[in-house]
Amino acid sequence: MLAGIFLAMHCYAQSRISGRISDESGQPLPGANVYIEDDARGAISDKEGFYSIDNIPEGKNVIRVSYIGYHSIEKSIDIKQDMRMDFILKHSVLFGEEVIISGIRAGEKDPIAYSFIRREEITERNLGQDMPLLISLSPSVVATSDAGTGLGYTNFRIRGTDANRINMTVNGIPLNDAESHGVWFVDLPDFAGSVENIQIQRGVGTSTNGAAAFGASINFQTLAISKEAYGEINSSYGSFNTIKNSVSIGTGLLHDTYSFDTRFSWLHSDGYIDRASCDLSSWYISGTSLKEKSLIKLIMFSGKEKTYQAWDGVPGYLLDSLYTFNGKGMYTDEDGITRYYDNETDNYDQSHYQLHYSHEIDPGINYTAALHLTRGKGYYEQYKEDQQLQDYGIKDIILSADTITSSDLIRRKWLDNYFYGGVFSINITKTRFDAIIGGGWNKYDGNHYGTVIWARNAGKSEINHRWYRNTGIKTDFNSYVKMNYSVSKSLNLYADLQFRDIDYQIEGTDDDTSDVSQDHSFIFFNPKIGLNLMINENQRAFVSLSVANREPNRDNFVDADPGKAPPEPETLFDYEFGYDLNAGNFNAGINFYYMNYRNQLVLTGEINDVGAPVMTNVRDSYRAGIEALFSLKISDIISWNMNLNMSTNKIKNFKTYIDNWDYWDNPVSQPLQYQYELGTTDIAFSPWLVAGNSFKLTPVRNLSLDVYSKYVGKQYIDNTGSSDRKLNAWFVNDMKLKYTFYLKTFREISFNLLISNIFNEKYESNAWVYRYIYQGIEYKYDGFFPQAGINLLAGLSVKF
């Protein structure tokens, strides 16, 4: 049957048209739209400006080429055989929307190590998995999934640095939570469906809005203006009852002035881990008004999630026997039977509103300004057995003969917050001098509280009894100046100076009813300098020194021992040296980095006065490594991309602590915890080798085969470097098949099949551990996060 389809398509149209799209100076225009009128076939140019359209009917056709900010070209052609056509587009006076994010992105002359992911690459893999899985093949990235499938709670690290130390923005607006510094893509399901491109800057990177970048920064640009109207339906189904449906519609550019885009998505998965299901939905709406020298864009996107909790992981002693075990929600009923509470779920809604305005004052001067609001509200619900009533502010229940001091109950922990503010930038471009002056002011207003919605013995407590509440108010002001001066045609000097002023206030009680009220203020100066040398048109080298300062997050302050000094800010000195080669079909790059930390916050095993683990500052630590990447177009049908990171990541003079449970029985003669001096140790979750690899094969027209590979070396799950507490190395391979054909009714129809973990590798991508001593013997609690074995996702995409 498949052979018949190939034959039919071959007979229907055998001609191909291909070529290169560039501007008047010969620079490639990636992302330009090329299509055949009245036939709906089309293509988008790659990063080198090349395009190719297959299966064009022989005879007379009209080809149209368009790119935002340039005049479109229409040309009549008579196709009788395969042919090449190059196009040179001229700048138009229309003001492009790329200026919205230009202020925070690294450019070709900036001495920054960065990767760029285009929309075509994102949509190639987007069958429903969260963003961390979609960027997992980027250099130095390690992704993980609590449910084991890439949906639900997911996370990632870059250069061993977790997400709350990676600064993320959407169109220049901060995405990280102001208090925790974290980003949870489960709150924005199918966000990739509305992303135009992504820039990942490794290391400190350029100054931007939001929290400091201590391992990387990621800048998302949402959908750019499409000059043509479009519609798209994407559906997929696969293992673990994973389902995704999305609908996207855009008006195109109406009267060369207005444009509207929208997307709606629904996703579900049962999860690989037991009881790790998720039900997710999201929407995206944008409207643009484009004038000769100005642009106004309103962007709104929102997500809603309900996810069964799976964040405890699988205890290490159960991995061999119950690999997918999830103990969340487990309780014992009155008959002694083990049951699971069916609403042990996390529930959260998050909505983002952005209003952007850009204006060109002169051909070399423009400015941008944006207002934003993020509204989040939700809770996670838990069944808790045998809880002390007094811990929840409920008085003991006194009966005639007994006093009831504990009860089974169901509780909810709520987060209700607003994050709002404004950002701006002024961009100046002259012959030998570029400058950007920018900054922003943002405020976070959050409420944390807990309610008991049911108790077996509730006493005189009210319905939805509230046992704790605290507020977090945080303001963050930043301003920066970036300068790039061309000393000569080949040498550029770069300077980037940022100032940040942060005020943070916490008032009220925490879930253990302790008073956590406190005030903190910080002033940071983050300078960056560098050189960029264009050796020739195909080669560049760069060197940079950057400094970043980061304030502790909410947990660092709340969990700190009140009897000791509060945690201190962290400082990073980042040294980078890189070389890039772009030689047509072969591109390569190598980057050396040394990231030297002062007062990095890490887990040492130390606990506070109530026994909760805390992060403490360590004086000296560092990351040093080599990143290498290359891409090779072997032929018209085979291309190869590869990257790797080899690194060493150390803490100097490390002290670890082990909680002594015997202290609680005899605090007079027993120490609260034991201290051990370990000297130099490895930083947790920092594998020595991370490598990504992809092959793309196009054996026949319209059919492509991609093979993705990821290797992650051994990593420790605490900072002691003990082989008893580690994640084994893993090597995972995925394969994707895509077949596309064209009809006059539809622009494009594609069938996709993603086979993940094709060799059924058994591995865990994340873990946690807590150590303690009881009756003189060391024990541990731990949790591992197994990832799914071989699994499938099949998708259908219809574009019209």
Would you mind describing this structure in some detail?
- With 800 residues, the chain is mainly beta.
- The chain folds into two domains: 14-89, Immunoglobulin-like (Sandwich); 230-799, Maltoporin, Chain A, CATH 2.40.170.20.
- The protein has a 22-stranded antiparallel β-barrel.
- A hairpin with a 3-residue loop joins strand 20 (278-290) and strand 21 (294-308).
- The longest helix is centred in the first third of the chain and has 11 residues, at 2-12.
- The two termini are 25 Å apart.
Keywords:
single chain; globular; Immunoglobulin-like; mainly beta; 22-stranded antiparallel beta barrel; 800 residues; Maltoporin, Chain A; 5-stranded mixed sheet; 2 domains; disordered N terminus
How do you describe this structure in short?
The protein is mainly beta and 800 residues long. It contains five helices and 47 strands.
Write the layout of secondary structure elements.
Blueprint (H helix, E strand, L loop, with lengths): L1 H11 L2 E9 L9 E4 L5 E3 L5 E7 L2 E8 L6 E7 L3 E2 L2 E3 L9 H4 L10 E6 H7 L5 H4 L6 E5 L8 E5 L2 E2 L3 E5 L2 E2 L20 E8 L13 E7 L7 E9 L3 E9 L7 E12 L8 E13 L3 E15 L21 E3 L5 E3 L4 E18 L2 E24 L8 E2 L4 E2 L1 E24 L3 E23 L9 E22 L4 E18 L9 E19 L2 E12 L3 H5 L11 E14 L2 E22 L5 E21 L4 E23 L12 E10 L6 E12 L2 E10 L2 E2 L9 E2 L2 E12 L6 E9 L7 E11 L2 E10 L4 E9 L1
Parallel strand pairs: 1-7, 1-8, 13-16, 37-45
Antiparallel strand pairs: 1-4, 2-3, 2-5, 5-6, 9-15, 10-11, 11-12, 13-14, 15-16, 17-18, 17-47, 18-19, 19-20, 20-21, 21-24, 22-23, 24-25, 25-28, 26-27, 28-29, 29-30, 30-31, 31-32, 32-33, 33-34, 34-35, 35-36, 36-37, 37-38, 37-39, 39-40, 40-43, 41-42, 43-44, 44-47, 45-46
